[in-house]
Amino acid sequence: MEEIKSSEFVSANIAVLGGGPMGIYLSTYLSPKAKEIFLWYDDRKRAAKIEKERVASILEDSITLPENVHIRSELDFLRTGSWILVIAVPSRLMEGVLDELIKVLDKNSSHFIFTFTKGLLSSSTRRKTNCITYSEYLRKLSVTGEFKDIEYTAVNGPNILGELKRGHHSFYCLSSFGSKSVEIFETLFDGSRNHTKTYEDLVGLEVFGVMKNPIAIACGIASGIPECGSNFEGELISLGYSEIISLLETLGIPTRLVSEYGLADLIVSCTSRYSRNKAYGHRFVHKLISGEDQPNLIERIELFFNPAEFIQKEVSQSESHVEGAFSLASIIALAEEKNVEIPLYNTLFQILTRRVSPTELIRFVSKSTSDEVRHISKTATKRSGLGTASGKKFQEALSKNVLRHINGQPGMTDRIVKQSPLLVKSLEKRYKEAEEADDITDLLQIPKEIQLWNEVEKKFQEKGNKDLTRILDFYVSEIADDYKPFLRDTLIHLIAPARYILSGFKPGAGLPKIGGCVKEVKALASRYDILYTPTHRSHLDSIEVAFGLKWLGLPVPRYAADKKVMATPGLASVLKTLGAYMVDRKRNRNILYLECLTQYSTMMLEAGIPTLVYPEGTRSRTGGILPIKTGILSTSVEAYKHTGSEVIVVPIALSYENVPEDEEFCGTDNKVSFKDFFYKRTEVYMDLCEPIPVSRYIHEEDPTGLIGFEITQGWKKYRRILPNQLVARLLTGPEVAVNELRNLIKETILTTKGNYLTRDSDEILNRGLKTLKQRKIVSLEKENVKVLDRNLIQYYANMCIDEPF
Hints:
The radius of gyration is 31 Å and the shape is globular. Residues about 1-5 and about 370-390 have low confidence and may be disordered. The protein is built from 34 helices and 23 strands. By secondary structure, the chain is α/β, with parallel strands linked by helices. GO terms for molecular function: acyltransferase activity; glycerol-3-phosphate dehydrogenase [NAD(P)+] activity; NAD binding. One of its GO terms (cellular component) is cytosol. One of its GO terms (biological process) is glycerol-3-phosphate catabolic process.
């Protein structure tokens, strides 16, 4: 957050009403402005908890409240003196808050109210008072209460919280009754990235601020329908804007300046990835598609008799401050009172109350009456019966697919053929290395590969022939698995207990400990094709994922196995029957080979076969998350385009207490033996991240780049931060006192967000030190922790930060 200079101090009393994310942000931002800031919560228990812990959350970040921010759950503290009140309560509480303020504020003092809350008065209050907005209501209350000096200012954007907290440029459109409010606001929010504009049309600014939010929900719903892209959302915004103008004109509100104080706010709310209203709409569709959203009998009754209350109840249970859902019924009621048609808002209401499909938006926008748009057809199909595809027929189909793809791209065949002499030289060099290392697999296969590439070169030189069939068949045969489901299932059931026994009955040795979005992934896996994308830390990763998924009852994928792992033809044959396909990372410049790999993964998804890929490309030698290689992710996009069937990308965050290959990664000469994978492995945690529908990004210019970004964000959010990793991160010097380390742990878990295994600082310290001492990475001498292996400390420290130190 942008720092406020101490010279800009305000002597008046300041209180922020509302303990949600915006209220917490505002109280923290304004804390340097006054000697004391009061933050009011409507929940007494929550207020007591926050006051005791002094820690609160803004979106996904935990922050420590400044010392001069005092928590209150009653409004009695406002009874004396003048007050600057900044209101950020949910709209459902706003009328009650205004009623209470009139009761407690000193009528003989000056008060300045600034509200970020967007809403309309309830129908009953509108009928009683003949008022529509909060400003009109407060003005009437203040006259009745004989207040001498009270000013009210409505604050519109664009000033989305997600950008405010990051210190981005933000804009405040203000309108008020009173002469001093604007000057006070500019003093409070005078940062170099805050920009203020003032307008005289207070009621118009309030009504527009309310009506923009449901349109953002509609855009969120559209973003979850594959047929709808940015073009469709743009049309939705245009139609929504027209309906807002119609209602404003009927209310007698001038619309000349609407484009200045409202249009930017509307566009940002409907398009920003930080928009809570748009995110709610997208999640709504996602739940419908996944089958999670099934109202029970009581909810169906409530939907029938009181649909508006059902929407509000549903939102309050799942999201905070999704104002578009809370205000929707009030907007429709107001339009009905004024005899104004607002069909977009009515359609949205019908969708949120489950009376019509979300695709009714398409019918409304396109004015279509076709049955074609009644269902979200493109995301509701999963091909069945092909999950075990393998064998010669599949390999033949793969070869034909690769050839068709190569021939369909101008110049690709020429590039492949011209590459053959360079590939032969590279293979001859690699064969000599295999002789020195006694690499059986390479010694058997490389001569055959050299022979085939020489044939390609010879045919091209003698006859101009560009026949790649034989070398292509060689690569396809090497790559393809020979999946036998019965054998794999049997081995999974046998190996897990065997690992537990061979490890000496260590807790967690048989299976990984599983968390994250399990329920959501299960719901989606029964309907759609799945691409698993785990972090890559060890050769054990594929085994851990297979065991974990089988235990959950989720489809176990085909997966890539490095050629090193398939060390002999016999072992390669066994692994292929378990669903592994071979990947040779040394061929990373072989155009034909890379095309085979890409098409293989694409065909798996097209056939409805769950697949696993490692977007990082290789095991992380640093312990941290590596930049994603988006090439392999293109398979999910291509599969979606070819079949029209949804592909769900499921990121998986794997966290190892001890990685068997850690010493190898840290530069020692220790080679990992087969036994190390049993004895060095202790506890492993597997967290399923939020699923990513490919359809969400299919219309973007760079869908694979955006999917890659979402995968990385999921890994960072869900990866389990283990005690030994956190302790390693905090051991920055050669020696640290135990008490100092304990305090550093407490400070870190309070100020740094993360999916901590535990937040108990003593447990983290004791368990973390125990693990590191057992591995002789640290020692404990006279209440001091001494680092014995700086490289391993660095390796595990990198597991809980975004970038390596």
